[in-house]
Amino acid sequence: MNNRLRVLRAERKMSQAVLAELLDVSRQTVNAIELGKHDPSLLLAFKVSQVFGLPVEQIFDPGLHGEAKQAAE
Amino acid sequence: MNNRLRVLRAERKMSQAVLAELLDVSRQTVNAIELGKHDPSLLLAFKVSQVFGLPVEQIFDPGLHGEAKQAAE
DNA sequence: ACATTATGTCAATAATACTTGTCAAAACGC
DNA sequence: GCGTTTTGACAAGTATTATTGACATAATGT
Question: Which fold has domain A2-57?
Fold first, then answer.
């Protein structure tokens, strides 16, 4: 599961620790998700969506189509 | 986490078992999710999204503000 | 150089998603 | 009524994710 957490965080100059607080999870959890070590729960994905003000689909990409990447920006 | 699985399924006259096959999970899993016994993984949520041709946000509803978890029951 | 912040990583544990197997009741068709 | 399908439910087990605590390294600032 690819995700744009790092980019979104960088755009807002937000540390993993700060994001973790906003999401009410540990910093390690944010780190693990950002590095693709595991996927967030659906609820956490929604929280991320809220924090960045973007739909889930524009943050997480299951890569089910392989080629189809996001051209929207 | 509320969801519209039952409605979407009914609209398509699709049984839990058939949906389960499309999602590549067990029927019990579909049932449990539909009844709100637990939430799907993010990946499974994306699969559901694909099957019904709708964005995740239009199928699952976390309460959007984290305030009211399940007020309508 | 030193202190502070940010990040990556490991280990152990808790929580939950998902499984198979099974059973019973409700809904449907014949 | 009878058989089939569908659904709800339960239990026990597996797999995955979330949790904290600790430690190492890199980057930043003074």
Answer: 434 Repressor (Amino-terminal Domain) (1.10.260)
The secondary element (H helix, E strand) that includes residue B5 is: helix B5-11
Q: Which of A39, A50, A55 sits opposite B42 (nearest CB)?
A: A39
pLDDT digits (tens, 9 = 90+) for A7-58: 999 999 999 999 999 999 999 999 999 999 999 999 999 999 999 999 999 9
Percentage of chain B modeled with pLDDT above 90: 81
CB of B45 closer than 8 Å to CB of B56: yes
Enumerate the nucleotides of strand D whose atoms come under 7 Å of any protein CB: 5-11, 16-22
Chain B residue numbers touching A41 (CB-CB < 8 A): 39, 41-42
